[in-house]
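Take our chain:
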Amino acid sequence: MAKTTAHYVCQECGADYPQWSGRCEACGAWNSISEEAPRDSVPLGAGKTRKRSKEHVEFLQLDSPAAELPRRVTGITELDRVCGGGMVPGSALLVGGDPGIGKSTLLLQALCAIGGKAACVYISGEESVEQVRMRAGRLGLAEAPVRLAAATNIRAILDSLETDRKADGAEVLVIDSIQTMYMDALDAAPGTVTQVRACSGELVRFAKRHGITVFLVGHVTKEGQIAGPRVVEHMVDTVLYFESKRGHQFRILRAVKNRYGPTDEIGVFEMSDAGLREVTNPSSLFLADQPEDVQGAVVFAGIEGTRPLLVEIQALVAPSVLGSPRRAVVGWDSGRLAMTLAVLEARCGLALGAQDVYLNVAGGLRITEPAADLAVAAAIVSSLTGEPLPHNTVVFGEVGLSGEVRGVGQRQARLKEAAKLGFTRALAPRQTAEAEKHRKPSLEILEIGHLQDLLAHFATTAHITAEHTSQEDPLALTRGRRH
């Protein structure tokens, strides 16, 4: 009889080890490796061959005619936008987010919205049926045609759904959450990598086989990643992250993977007493509390997925009382802030090495595109000089290491969104002569080719005192270097 060997798996990343270790070498997590049941498969001995499979795989040509799969539209515009225009039959979607951010509420609202057009099933492994009904009643959705169940055995769930297909089969299924599901054939606790991977695989195969849409709710770790395993993200078709900063009422639904639509698309929601309310014009909402002509505050014209979005970037530059000045960033990449500060100091002569720099993206939004470089630089210079940019100005552009400002994509969409919200000026990168011919300016565009051109907009009333700089006026130093 073949001897079974112990099997050790990291519960953070899914790495396998022949013996226990205190630290996972793959992801660096401590005390995350635990013993699990040995694998069922035994390697074949020398001279042995596998039996032929009786299952036949049919191969089709790439250009073979295929039926169009109509998307299931929920009617919640922001959710449909992030999904690529609606839910594709036979797809699996993974929704992750912090506890209490609204994942269950959003999916319950989506099921109730589409319940009249498709058979919907909501299975909760964390709440009882009565608790789900109480939440639906609080949201005013108690009369929606949605079937509920409280179960955690994945085999019992799939067998029940198979039986119900003969009568009224499910077309949209929500599993809340995948970390509570288990397969009784595996000797592992619910939430471990083995259980989550096996349960997700069964659900994905069930969705493909029967053409239903499956939503999997996933918890996140303290680092913000979906807990348990990243292997689940490879198995599903779409990965959605629900984001929010503590204390903000806004919720950002972001697509980081989508086989049937664009990635980096976002949907904006606002939490209210009646549940999540979609925000159709997030730019006006993010700028609702924007004061006029405040130093260190700049409006950035960004792009999230296919949507132009205007958001305020705030910077504060203050003398440091510590040996190592602080660099605090909220909503942006700290590495790009360090690069922008280095370029301002090396190419423009601004003395920022002894200054504390604080940067914040208002509204709890997280910006990832490099087009925000110029807006961040403008906010820092505005705070350093004490001179604000006019409140009717938007800024966008990517900054290179030599100080040049490079063009960014979807320029016209950014300018159109700014003009729609009443902005009259834009600080933007220079564009080619060919692009200039097709431009229809709806607002005044001040082109910036180098960061030194940006400093010229602060030169009228700006003077920096000795406690902000090293005994010299950085704008005068800049003009000297320019020539």
Observations:
- The chain has 13 helices and 21 strands.
- Confidence is low (pLDDT under 50) at residues 460-483.
- The CA atoms of residues 24 and 30 lie 6 Å apart.
- Residues 1-38 form one domain.
